[in-house]
Amino acid sequence: MKKKSQLSELISISLIIIVLVIVLVFSRIRSARYSVTETEAISNDYKNIYSKTAPYLFLQITVKKETLSKLFGYYTCYNETDFKISGISYNVISETQRELNDFFGKNKWSLQIQRTLCIDSETSKKGFCETFNRKNINTYEFVYPLPCKTDYAAGIIYLYFD
Amino acid sequence: MYKKKGVVLTTKILFAIFMVLIVFFIFFNLFSTRYEKNKLKKDFGYYTKLNSFMNVFMSTPECGALGRVSEESGSQSPIKAIFEAEKLSKFDRKNRDPWCAQNLYFIYTAEIIDIKNTKSWIIGPVNNNPEWLERRLTTTFPCIIKYKKGISNPGLFKLYVYIGKISDFYTNIKKSCIANKDLTFRLDSDFDIKYLNSQNKLIIGTDYFHPYFPCKVNDFSVKKGKKLIYIQYENNQVNIRQ
User: Fold this and answer.
1) Per the CB < 8 Å rule, is A57 touching B154?
2) Cα–Cα 20 to 30 A to B165, which of A65, A149, B152, B215?
3) Are A49 and B151 inside 8 Å of each other by CB?
4) pTM as predicted
5) B152–A102: do the CB atoms touch at under 8 Å?
């Protein structure tokens, strides 16, 4: 009889401990989950601000006296990578590479101007950019004005985060 | 017989002590988890405010963003993250909390750096690592700096946010001004704090900056230590009492 009561005492105490441990574990998990969701929310907030603004800023950078968007416009209109504007010579590829390497970092970007030219940190080629070997890519489309007619052309900037 | 009873008693006492320890340990853990969660909540709150304030600052034409404020309607037409060098120069290294973008949660310094010619502008308290600092959060964002001659250079926008009791005390004075009401604040500072209205100077320890209060704040001096501060708003003026 005495042994039975001792046993039930032990079982009830063990049950209390088990319940408390479960509560503790759940509380820790909830806290960790909270940290993860909040971190995600904050980084999404930042990403949201970033993606709406930063990828398009490079169009405003000036080289010598003209903006990059104007240089893209000249290239699209006249299909030449070397041209002169107001007596100043420009090479759309080298100017773009230098400025975007400064702005986004080396090997962190590729630029597609219409469907005809792909420029990245060190190389350029006619046609489309190949991004299949990169893992973490963000793609942003942009437009730029054309100096030869009242119209816009489109381009794509690929930003790499791997 | 007696020996057996003694062993049983000792075992029972040991078991009871063990039980009490376990229960204490579990409750301690539960409360510390709760405390940590509340602390995290506060920290995350600061990060959220930091992000949204960065967004506001980069879109405020009065602070340097490209764009204008219509005098008739008061409406703004800013272009985010493009700063005008001329506007920035008005605030540069004045060691003054800027009036153009008010923050009621922390003291901040904005630094705009031109990557091409390594020129920089500092808006807000110049010292971004003051001795009274408890915690600093920093965020950066790419930007463009536009010069008058039509040149636009790539840049970096850095926002330093200072968090702690002194920051809270400062922002509470601002809140009292804006809300037109009395506030109480529990200050626990390792530094003497002094405000000189005639020079608009807030001196914290050996460091100082020029604050921006939306109403008149009379001179005050608070010695270091734990204090209950009364921020009293009366007739568009704020008095600090202890």
Assistant:
1) yes
2) B215
3) no
4) 0.83
5) no
Tokens encoding A10: 């032990």
Separation between Cα atoms, residue B197 and residue B211, nearest integer Å: 10
Instruction: With CB atoms and an 8 Å threshold, state whether A38 touches B22.
Output: no
A24: closest chain B residue by CA = B30
The answer to whether the CB of B221 falls within 8 A of the CB of B231 is no
A44-63 pLDDT, tens per residue?
988 888 888 888 999 999 99
Together in a domain, A75 and A35: no
The backbone region for B54, taken as left when phi is positive above 0, alpha when psi lies in -120 to 50, beta otherwise, is alpha
In a shared domain, residues A9 and A41: yes
Whether residues A65 and A22 share a domain: the answer is no
Stretch (H or E) spanning A85: strand A82-85
- At residue B96, the 3 state secondary structure works out as strand
Q: Out of B26, B37, B144, whose CB is closest to A31? A: B37
Nearest to B153 among A28, A45, A61 (CB): A61
Q: Which of B24, B140, B141 to mutate: most A Cβ within 10 Å?
A: B141
Residues A26, A82 within the same domain: no
* Angstroms from B163 CA to nearest CA on chain A: 18
- Residues A104 and A128 grouped into a single domain: yes
Number of domains, chain A: 2
pLDDT in tens, B149-188: 889 999 999 999 999 999 999 999 999 999 999 999 999 9
- If asked whether residues A96 and A82 sit together in one domain, one would say yes
**Between chains, do A57 and B47 touch, taking CB under 8 Å as contact?**
no
A51 and A68 fall within a common domain: no
Range of the domain at A99: 61-160
**Chosen domain end from A56, A73, A98:** A56
